[in-house]
Structure formats: C-alpha cells, structure tokens
Design a protein that fits this description.
This protein is 0% helix and 59% strand. It is mainly β. The protein has one domain. The strands form 2 sheets. Strands 3-4-5-6-7 form a 5-stranded antiparallel beta sheet, with no helix packed on it. Strand 3 and strand 4 form a beta hairpin.
Length: 97
C-alpha cells in the first residue's frame, strides 16, 4: 500500500490520486495515452505522463498475448526544474482453458 497520506488527529488518512487523461488506438497493435496528474496540483506541483503500448504477440489458440508498455512521467514545481521518471512493463494474457 502506498501513495500520499495526511495526518488527521494523529491518524494517517490516504489521499486519492486523481488523473485526467485520454488514450487513443493508433492501430490494431498500438495505443498511446497521456494524463495530467491532478492531486499534486494541490501541493503546487504540475505533473503529467505519456506512454505507448504495443501488442507484440497476439493471442492465438493456447498461446497468450504479450503487450509491451513504455511510459514517462514528468513532475515540476515550476520554479526549480523538473523530475523525470520512466518505466517499462510487459504483460501477457492467461492462456484460455
């Protein structure tokens, strides 16, 4: 369990992480997406992410599908600069029974 929290009368209370974004299918195998991170704006920090997913291997009978995703995040207080974080993930579907 992670994410932001505040202390209310000595009890940590989790804050929701809200984003506003969109995704678009470029083709049968490519999707792109971007999001603005709204919660950090309450703390004076602007944040966004953008990424793409590629269906590297489509499901075929008992063979599972495999998708690869890359995403970059940028956060800035707009005074001292920006912080970048990137991630890459791979996912596969379970083989049908």
């Amino acid at each position: 369990m992670g994410g932001p929290a505040v202390q209310l009368e000595g009890t940590p209370v989790p804050l929701p992480l809200s984003t506003l974004g969109a995704s678009y299918g470029l083709s049968d195998r490519w999707d792109v997406s971007a999001h603005a991170h709204l919660t950090p704006l309450l703390l004076g920090v602007a944040g966004m992410d953008a990424g793409a997913t590629w269906l590297a291997l489509a499901q075929d009978g008992g063979r599972p599908a495999v998708a690869l995703t890359g995403r970059g995040y940028v956060f800035s207080d707009l005074d001292t600069g920006a912080l970048f974080h990137g991630e890459a993930t791979a996912a596969r579907t379970a083989a049908p029974r």
